[in-house]
Amino acid sequence: MRKGTVLGSVALSVLTAAGCGGETTPTPRHSSTSSSSPGATAVTEAQARAIFADHEKVNNEANSKVSDALLRQNETGPMLEIDLAGNKRIRAKQAKKIKPFHYEGARFFIPHNVSPAWFAVSARVKGESGTEFLVFVDTGGGTYKSAVGAWVAKGQKLPAIARGADGSATAVTTGPALGVGTRLATYLTYTADRKKSPEAFASGPLTSTLGRNWAKSVLELTSRGRWQGRTQWAARPQPVYALKTADGGALVLSAVVQALRYTAARPNVWYRPGRDFYGLGPKRYYHRFTGEWLWTFATHVPSTGLPSVVASGVDPISATGS
């Protein structure tokens, strides 16, 4: 993943008024699943390390050149979608180029007998406190690309991953844990609507706090009677990557889209979205606005007890309207 995703949660940064507008400061803030297949060949840890090192090298070159072609060579899935949108914002001079970054302390989790083959890695970034959790997937012919990643939230930690006698990890390919992204999307949408959710998650910065922050932001915008709308989360129908944890549960990495949808309720008003959307669309909207953030959540689903979200990544991917 391109270095630049901020840890924590995102807050809606808009205010609207007839003839004027402003913005608040954002709070700090990167289905189907792989099937079991005896014929799939897992990489060795040495091979995984080489893939990871090449990912860092190509990623830094792509960032330096703001190159979509290099990103496509190096990434796939949600990660590529996020970073192509990032390049668009940089070329529009609405975001700064990403500085070079280097990983350290990498730990690899390599499941066997999954198709397509994939592996996960957690690593720190030199000079920073954040830890990133990424998945690399075989896109064909042994070519691995980074597919999705999340940053461990402040005060959180990744659960212990179960290891086999040979040091391998175990992929979770069936069961209710794989649907946690859909359940989380439901939970956040209900919470942002100030309603009781049918789903339950452990309280934390990426669950209860995130939903309540958005409830306040949406209320601030709609209570003036100038705009109508809401924010909703929906799980992406893309591969879900899950590893068995030492407690018998699973660590699940999934993608969820958060959409802001607003329509003007009065004439002669305008809406200015948060700066994260600048470069993906105009800076002002007069009739309607739809903006999307793509989240990646790493959720610990224990064998007993409530799921907890321990890591996330979030970036804007689209802005449309008139």
What do these coordinates show?
- By secondary structure, the protein is an alpha+beta fold.
- It has one domain (15-321).
- Helix content is 22%, strand content 32%.
- The chain has helices at residues 45-65, 68-74, 77-91, 180-192, 208-222; strands at 15-17, 20-22, 32-33, 35-36, 103-109, 114-115, 118-125, 131-138, 144-152, 227-235, 239-244, 250-264, 270-271, 288-301, 308-321.
- Strands 3, 5, 7, 8, 9, 10, 11, 12, 14 and 15 form a ten-stranded mixed beta sheet that branches. A three-stranded antiparallel beta sheet has the order 2-1-13, with no helix packed on it. A two-stranded antiparallel ribbon has the order 4-6.
- Helix 1 runs antiparallel to helix 2 (68-74), helix 2 packs antiparallel against helix 3 (77-91) and helix 4 (180-192) packs across helix 5.
- The model is unreliable at 4-33 and 35-39 (pLDDT under 50).
- Residues 42-311 form the DUF8094 domain.
- Keywords: Lipoprotein.
- This is Lipoprotein.
- Residues 24-38 have a biased composition (Low complexity).
Which structural class do the helices and strands define?
alpha+beta
Task: Give the count of structural domains.
Answer: 1
The count of DSSP E runs of length 2 or more, i.e. the number of strands, is: 15
Gyration radius, rounded: 20 Å
Instruction: Specify the number of helices.
Output: 5
Helix content: 10-25%
The proportion of residues in beta strands is 25-35%
Write down the overall geometry: globular
Largest sheet: 10 strands, mixed
- Mean pLDDT across all residues, rounded? 89
| Helix and strand run | EEEEHHHEEEEEHHEEEEEE
Name the poorly predicted regions.
4-33, 35-39
Q: For the terminal residues, how far apart are their CA atoms? A: 32 Å
Q: What quaternary form is this?
A: single chain
Region (Disordered): 19-41
Biased composition (Low complexity): 24-38
Protein name: Lipoprotein
Pfam families: DUF8094
